[in-house]
Amino acid sequence: MTTPPPPPTIYTHLAYAELLHLAAAPASDAVALKARAEAFDVEGAVWGRLVREALILLGREYAVLVSRGAPVGATPSISASASAAASPSAFAGMGTGSTPNASPSPSVLVPTLTPLKKNIFAPKTPASPGARVGTAIEGLIAATASPAPPPPAHAHAPPKHEQLQKHTPQVKWQLRPLLEAVLPMVPALPVPGWVKVALESAGEVLEAVGRAGLPAAWTRKRKGREAAGWVPRREVCVEVVGVLTHLTCASLTEDRFGVVQRDIPRILEALLAFLAEVETAQAALRPKPAEMPEAEKEVLAFLGEVEKKMEGEEGQKKAEERALQKEREREEAIHLEEARTVLGEVGDALKDGVARITRTFGDKLRAFRFPPRTAARLQGFLEYA
Fold this sequence. Notes:
By secondary structure, the protein is mainly alpha-helical. The chain has helices at about 10-25, 30-40, 45-65, 80-85, 130-145, 160-165, 175-180, 195-210, 215-220, 225-230, 235-255, 265-285, 295-310, 315-360, 370-385. Helix 12 runs antiparallel to helix 14 (about 315-360). It is extended, with a radius of gyration of 35 Å. The relative contact order is 0.11. Residues about 75-115 have low confidence and may be disordered. It is found in: Nucleus membrane; Nucleus, Nuclear pore complex. Keywords: Coiled coil, Membrane, mRNA transport, Nuclear pore complex, Nucleus, Protein transport, Translocation, Transmembrane, Transmembrane helix, Transport.
């Protein structure tokens, strides 16, 4: 069973940054030219390992983006795999000349071992009264320290965080009663008057904050932070796309053995699929269209002022609610723009990479076979190359 690859680390980022420097260097750079020549050797071992690791990394990030930051895939439990491996059907037919329906040969019966419930180090001779007291204490400790049976597994058990919240006592701290209870126990000390005033003021402020609650901006989810969780390693993705596309373009003149050509369709298909998902996520983050033109909004604002003057306090309250709603819409638009900018970092790198390959190869890409959807997207890049 193959283990999943480790997630990208800072060393992955540094490695791809160095590779990007070598891949994007001009042909006049002798060090970069030699490194690319070693990657395009006749066996293609270096290039094969590099492109495989890069596509796997992009595939993991693509899966995270598709699931919108949710955890992707679950590893099979060890107990399930062990029980499947230990079942009789898993060993059927493994011996030479045996059939799956053959009965296993009889084996020697081994009695099952159970843990002893007594002290094996106890002396066999009659113990003294003090030793008997010690033995009784040990028995009590052993009975108390015996492991409790595991709770029954429920099919629809609530998540652990909900269980913890249910059993966690809800304690509301109030500073003033706490100070009134603690200060009499403190010995009388000469305290300046301004210290007492400061303590009383701090208590009043904390109580007022507790009654009002936290500001909405502190508790409301921000779309920019949420979108950053959709592409958590976007810097590494940008570097990987640059490495793959620059080396693919350099292979047109430096790859004498054609080791890169077999992977060009896979690279372009992966980049275009990733780009399509980024564009889909960006389209979902567009703000809602305006329900009415600006002229009508100005007329309604004027009517609101008239209504405010006529109705007095009620009109003023309605005007404040409308102003608060406009402020919320403005903040939401700012957060959506921040989220599109976060996704745009990866989207721009993917567009530049595909455009770089199409500009370099041009009509030579017609020699490769692509899926219809990939070919249609490439045609658009070729027309504007």
